[in-house]
Design goal:
By secondary structure, this protein is an alpha+beta fold. It is built from 13 helices and 5 strands. The longest helix is centred in the middle third of the chain and has 18 residues, at 176-193. GO terms for molecular function: DNA binding.
């Protein structure tokens, strides 16, 4: 049995037709027409009006006539057709357009199931962050390993801010410049992906203004997102620890990132056990 390659143009046409036909005109408060509806759902001209495009454009899209709508048009059609989040993603993929980030509500609080997962990961140190390194949730092991973030004002619960500004965390990493460099490379990628995020822009401005090291490394324009790696820390209570980390992005909430630490060797695991027993 052979599977044909997806024809994105024809699938886009069929998808738009089916989404239009499933809509109930009464839900849109549209004026009644004398002519009875011969097909279910909205008419093409009604979708065109709701999306702010021409009727001819909608017709050509639904006929699969080789058009590639822009990201703005795809977004307008998504709203007009009242697509759900997964359908919206699918439409952007079919149109071969990059999906815009949600500019209205970047993650600033932990999604409850993910906050519970952070707690359930004990005894592994774990915490939840957003794209700008704001710390949204953490478990007791992470608090013992790094810092009790609950004692800090919310504006300071940011792992990059702590690394640059907090007197204890500044001296925490054995290879501090590497950690800062990797964090900056991630922030630059996040900055490009979230141009609408004023809080992130303000944070970067604060760092470049008040920290010479950050300003120097930011100017190098390194870009890299690290989902896995190795860090060596100098803990004041149990000494040097070698740790491996994983960063996971949930499918349902891709703006939240789950960071998990594990001991890199037996000696570090023993040190972690002593730390947790204190």
């Amino acid at each position: 049995m052979t599977t044909r390659t997806v024809d994105a143009t024809q699938e886009l046409a069929a998808f738009l037709r089916t989404r239009r036909e499933r809509l109930n005109p009464d839900d849109f408060g549209l004026p009644s027409r004398r002519q009875s509806r011969r097909t279910p759902g909205l008419r093409r001209e009604e979708v065109a009006e709701l999306a702010g495009v021409s009727i001819d454009y909608v017709v050509r899209l639904e006929q699969g006539r080789g058009l590639r709508p822009s990201a703005d048009v795809v977004e307008a059609l998504s709203r007009a057709l009242r697509l759900g989040p997964d359908e919206r993603v699918y439409l952007f993929d079919l149109a071969q357009q990059r999906r815009p980030r949600n500019a209205d509500s970047p993650a600033t609080t932990a999604v409850p199931p993910l906050a519970q997962l952070v707690a359930d990961l004990s005894p592994l140190p774990a915490m939840l962050m957003n794209h700008r390194y704001d710390i949204l949730a953490w478990n007791g092991e992470m608090a013992r390993l790094l810092l009790d973030f609950g004692t800090l004002p919310p504006s300071q619960r940011n792992s990059m801010w702590l690394c640059l500004m907090h007197p204890r965390i500044r001296e925490f990493y054995v290879d501090r410049e590497l950690v800062v460099r990797q964090g900056i490379a991630h922030l630059r990628a996040a900055w490009a992906a979230h141009p609408e995020d004023k809080a992130l822009t303000d944070l970067i401005t604060e760092f470049t203004t008040h920290d010479e090291e950050f300003a120097r490394l930011w100017a190098e324009r390194d870009v890299k997102v690290n989902g896995r790696g190795h860090k060596v820390i100098r803990h004041p209570d149990v000494g040097v620890l070698a740790l491996r980390f994983e960063v996971l992005m949930p499918l349902q909430d891709p703006d939240q990132r789950l960071l998990i630490y594990r001991a890199a060797d037996d000696e570090s695991q023993s040190a972690l056990n002593r730390l947790y027993a204190r």
